[in-house]
Amino acid sequence: MTTRELADLLIREFDRQRATSLERALADALRAHGVPKFSADAEAFARTAEVLHELRNRPPEPLPFRFGQSDETRLVGKGRVAERDSAETAFAKQTWGLSDKLLDYLITLTPADFEVVATAAVELAGAHEMRALCTGDEGGIDFYGRLMVRPPSNRIAAGIVYSTILPKAVLILGQAKRYSRDQRIGRPEIQKFKGQIDDCLEKYAGNPVPPSHRVPDSYYERGEPYLGVFVSTASFAATAEGSVCASGVSLVGGTQLAQFLVQNRVGISCDGETYQFEPKEFEAWLEDRRLGLVSRLMEAAT
Question: 0.85 cut: is pTM over it?
Answer without folding.
Answer: no
